[in-house]
Amino acid sequence: MLVLMLAAIAAFGFWYGLLWPARGVRDAAQQRYDQALAELRVVQASVDALQRMGPARPQQAQALTAAIEARAVESGVALSRQRRDSEGQLVVELDGVPAKALFAWLQALRTGDGIEASGIRAERAGARLRAEVTFMATSP
Predict the structure, then answer these.
(1) Tens-of-pLDDT digits for all 140 residues of the chain?
(2) Buried b (16+ CB within 10 A) or exposed e, 70-88
């Protein structure tokens, strides 16, 4: 009878000492798995959306470049160089541009085409400015 009582106490200790905490760990792991699965589905949906819009990106980049160049001609701003940075943003460099013309060009882009610069770096070059203007990559 004493052995049976010790076996029952050992079973009780095993249940509450090992199995009950393991159930909590299992439930927490299941919750993290469900959350990760939901995030994976969101990411996969985003990847699918990006792949669907992939072919349209070069056309949008060309349209952005064309609008920037057209407004530069209208504003009397001479673009020196254009390039894409590592993040796909269009970087336009201007050498020797009057400050008034630079800001008129940026204002014309913003009001006329809805294009805003995401970054501007300028330094004095005599009575004019040497500027580098970054435009955000377009998205549909």
Answers:
(1) 888 889 988 888 877 777 777 788 889 999 999 999 999 999 988 888 777 765 555 567 778 888 888 888 888 888 888 888 877 788 999 988 888 888 888 888 888 888 888 888 888 878 888 899 998 755 44
(2) ebbeebebebeeeeeeeee
Q: Is 14 exposed, middle or buried (0-12, 13-18, 19+ CB in 10 A)?
A: exposed
Round to the nearest angstrom and report the end-to-end CA distance of the chain. 79
User: Of 63, 69, 135, 71, nearest to 105 (Cα)?
Assistant: 71
Rounded CA-CA distance 124/11 in Å is: 83
Tokens standing for 12? 């009780």
Angle at 103 between CA 101 and CA 108, to 5 degrees: 95
CA nearest neighbour of 75 among 118, 123, 111: 111
β partners of residue 130: 123
